[in-house]
Structures are given as structure tokens and as C-alpha cells.
Design brief:
Blueprint: H1 2-23, E1 29-35, H2 39-51, E2 56-62, H3 64-72, E3 79-81, H4 86-93, E4 97-108, E5 110-114, H5 122-128, E6 131-135, H6 141-150, E7 160-164, H7 167-175, E8 181-185, H8 191-196, E9 198-199, E10 208-215, H9 222-231, H10 234-242
Parallel strand pairs: 1-2, 1-3, 6-7, 6-8
Antiparallel strand pairs: 3-10, 4-10, 5-8, 5-9
Helix pairs in contact: 1-9
Length: 249
Amino acid sequence: MATVVVRIARILGLILTLSIACSNATAETITVACASNFKPTLEKLARAFEQQSKHRIRISSASSGVLFAQINNGAPFQLFFSADAIRPEKLVASGKANEKSLTTYAIGRLVLLHHQAYTTDPEQVIAHAKRIAIANPAIAPYGVAAKSLLNNWPVQKDAQVLQGNNIAQALQFFQSGHADAALVAASLLSTQQRQSGIDVTTLLTRPIRQKAVLINSQKSTDAAMAFMAFIRSGTARQIITDSGYLMPL
């Protein structure tokens, strides 16, 4: 079995190398729309990809909902890394994205940050919190996940739920002292911050399944397809895992 796995890994590595080599004929700038939670990780992936190709990655970051609206309005992105599966799938259904390119690149983890050193029980933390920061559920998948937990936790009647425009802003509310608890993406935290927070990922009824897709456009797609191939490589998967994500099987 181990031999088979090694052979498969070698084959995938060869495919990736050939894909990058073929796409290197003309250097391109790949425009990527990236959900806020994944931006720091995508920057690491971009550096690794650029080291082995002549291409460059240009990243635009916002909430998945904002980026989805921009793409529907004709924004010139070649790739879309969403924090959910629904929006990339909708782009495929509407003919705006390539169905064959659709891939789950990561599964997000949700962490509860707080200042209550005496407990590791998330419900106790929320029960004592006066201001709770989350991403706006209307446009941010991590906000949807956070809201699903808060709906079942003992939130005080007079507690304020502060909604950031994206998950990065929700974290800023906590770091600036405007919130005394926050439900944020593990990928935006340092290892120490992840360890001091409470990982509530297993409490979610639905995993935060994040998908990427190639946007149909008039631009050449060779470089963008090469980058998508790189995202599936062992090197990329390790970077994604090290950044605080779970990987799909």
C-alpha cells in the first residue's frame, strides 16, 4: 500500500512539474479573489509557486459575499478562493466558472478567543461576555458558522454581537479591546493564540468547507490552471495545514 501511495505522489508531482513547465512559456499575472480568512495562507502559497514559475499572483481580499458579487458584476478575477462551497458552486451553475476546476482546498477551523482564564467551556465564556465579535453572516461564511453556535449558547440579553465586514475585522474588534470574546478563523491566529483560545470546530453541525474555482474569462488560463494544480500538491497541502486548516480527504 505504501508503495502505491509513493507512486501516486510521484505521478502527481510529475504532472505538477509538467503543468508549470508548459505554462512558463509566457509569464502571466494571475488575479485571485480570496476570502479574508485565507489571505495570509494564500500569500505563502503564492511565494512558493512564484519560486518555481515565472508567474506572479495578485491577490484581492474581502469577504466571500463581497467577492462573489464583484465576480457576478464582471470583476476581472481568474480564480476565486471562497470560504464556503455555495458561492463557487453558484458561479458554476450560472456558467461563470469552470465546473472541472471546482475543488475543496481546505476545511476551516473556528476558534473562540476570550480573556477568561478560569474556563475552557465555550458556553461559559459566552454567558459572561458583554461584547462578542463575529463576521457578518450575510456575507461571510465564518459568520454563518459563528451565528449557528451563538443561537444555541447562553448569550446575555444585553450582550452586543459586533459584526465585522469580514473575519479579519472580527479579529480586530477583539484585539483592539472592542470585544471581550470573538469567534474567528484559526488561520488568522498565531500558534500561541490558537492554543490560548477554544477550538469549537467540532461543535459545528456543518464543516466550513472552502472551495476554489476557475472563473470563465477571455484571459489565458494556462497559468491559473497551473496554480490550481499547485494547490493540490503535497507542498501546498502542507502549507495549508500548517496555517491552521484541516484538509479534505
